Amino acid sequence: MRVLISADLEGISGVVHQSEIQPGRYDYERGRALMTAEVNAVVAGVLDADPAAEVLVTDAHGSFRNILPEDLDRRALLVRGKPRPHGMLDGLDEATDAVLFVGFHARAGAGPAVLAHTMSGDILEVRVNGRPYGEIGLNAATAGHFGAPVVLLSGDDQACAELRSLVPGAVTVAVKQAIGQTAAITRHPAAVREELRRAAAEAVTHRAEIAPFAIPGPVHVEVDVGSPLAVDLATLVPGVTRTGGGRTISCTAADVAEAYRVVLLVVHLAGIKPS
Description:
- Helix content is 30%, strand content 25%.
- It is of the alpha/beta class.
- The strands form two sheets. A seven-stranded mixed β-sheet has the order 3-2-1-4-7-8-9, with helices on both faces. A five-stranded antiparallel β-sheet has the order 6-5-10-12-11.
- Helix 1 (28-49) packs parallel to helix 4 and helix 5 packs across helix 6 (256-270).
């Protein structure tokens, strides 16, 4: 069995504020340690179910350099750093049997939800064939493009509900109950890790019963962007046009994996400041 674990930080137990997820800020080091520990619990659960499993962990938050390599379960391989062609899912391919999301958060506009956003604060909304998707939906659809089901998600209660609306059979672990953007009722990290280990074992054991979330191509993608410069730059890409009053870019992609790469490009462009 080949398994990919994609790990974000906003949906980790106890994390509720930007200062806990941004390098150099108060409590970031504690946040990344909690992230690493929850990933380790999921790795252990996968290997409880199949000791011969190949486990690849992809760091999927911010700089993609958050998980502490020296503290990661030595039985797993780690993908870190950016840019990467598959973004939050790098390491994914047709040989992947299951994908697990750890520490994920709800999409921009969802609420109340802890630290909800889509890719970055500059991306206001992403729509595929007219339906809004956040990181959960975009990544689940990209996994589905490669034939891999998302079998597990951990995050706040809103993130769990978001995945279940797309993949009803997936196992979810609510590590906190959202009160607002920067407030939640949180569970003890040790209790969460115990449940994650059990849930991961259950999820991969029953992976064949969970259908991949697939969006057939071609697909129409629209991205509402807060940065006018990013829109200007994005329209330099062949096939990308400006719509929706000047703050939206759109294009038709051959499939959802190509659409995902367009979104990743817009995220990077939105980070460019005028010179």
